[in-house]
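User: Hey, quick favor. My workstation is busy. Could you predict this chain's structure for me?
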Amino acid sequence: MTNYRAWDSKVILRIFIGSLNIACGQRQADQLCREVDEQDKRDEAANNEALGLANGPQGPPMEKAEKELRELKGHSKQRDDFIAWSQKREVSISHTNMSGEVQLSAADYKGKAVRIKNSTGVSYVVPEDVGLLKLMVDKCRDVSIHVRSSVVTSTVELYKCSRLELSLDQPLGTLQVDECEESVAVKYAERDHVGKAYHQNSPGFSVSWGLCGTASSTVVGKAGSLQLLTCLVDTDLRTEPVRRGEGEFPLDFGRASPASDQPEPEAAPASEQRRQEAEKHRMAGNDMFRASDFSQAAALYSLALQLVQALNAGVMLSFLSVDVILSTLIGMAASIEEHGIVNMHE
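Assistant: No problem, here it is.
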């Protein structure tokens, strides 16, 4: 609101300065003019600040741009916090031509995401009490890995490996196999332990169950850039392309669908529908995570977590992948550390 009294006083002061210029000389008048101008600037700045216009008048586009800039700064800090936290959780190891088994002890690796990278001619064993957060195997050759413990996030990733054998004593929710052009054999202890396997350009990828050799292996991998999903349908393995919808999000969030000539399945119970919807959000979050859009990934993971609140904790932890645990909410790190490693398959 304009202060007319102050404005009138300034007009009178400038008239007085004009008179002073005539009576007392130019120098004194100039000095008073400078002081009045400086006071005008201070008053204008104070008024702008009071009106929220410290940087001058701002229209809707400028306000939107500044809001997005503030959000971007917040996301950058969230991303930095996530990277710092995940780096503390991840451990990389590599061995070459070891004569005996390499045991991953609980003292060194419990609760850690372990990346086995560039190993050659090694046999690894993960004992029952280790409880890895996640297992990643990159560019390994002539390597065998026997995982006797459960994996907290129920996720294993294999990338550009050849002549690799992975034996799993406990159920696994998600297996990812990419660019493995030579033999990669994954052996489950039981048929019911087989979860979902996403694979791409891995013609040597095979699956079997029965660690004592009670079932023969089935080659499910194929060459090419098409991403495939393999999982159990009833008692048989089925492999189909991963279909994607809006935003390139995977639509195959349940088990692989039966052949097109089969009748439509009955509607799933409400709890199963909720689990499937949560899985869809989880997969979408994984895509955002791989694209380094951590804020969007966290939002999608939050939706998934909300949908499974009614499910028991064991089910919730078993179907969420490591990306949920790591990226969902940095605060979940504290929860994991507080409650320790849980068995997700009880």
